[in-house]
Amino acid sequence: MDETDRRQIHETVLRYCRGIDRLDMELVRSVYHPGGIDHHTGFSGPVEQFIEWVSGALRNFDGTMHLIGNHFVEGKGDVAVSETYGTAVHWGSPSDDPRRNFTSGFRYIDHFEKRGGRWAVAERWAVREWTRSDAGRHMPKEGDGPSPRRDREDQVYAIKARLGI
Description:
The chain is an alpha+beta fold. 27% of the residues lie in helices and 42% in strands. The protein starts with a helix and ends with a helix.
């Protein structure tokens, strides 16, 4: 496995996080091979059902932010195992609801396969390591400025379009 393969696998993990945080389910779908399987807290099954489930679950929040830390890939030929540590912040209304306002530490343990020259997830285990309540801790921003969007109208998509990327 060379550095190009490792970079492609890492970028696939990052693409998943953007898709989840921006509610871009086509981007999330692009992370998996057809027939891919996902195992999350509260869900285990095929990627198409996961997309439907996670899309609905995420709409219970005003926002999420997935931050990626350690990323380790081991592979041989066209198969690899990726272990990615991360933190996911969730916030929503009411702000004192611990099920709408929490941070969790997780690991994505991914079985990647390279098919047709493309690395994608064949099976994912989203292992939740810990969760803490952030209820009552969310504060509104202190002034005007760019605001996030949870759709393809978010600033990152606007800038990409403007630059022709």
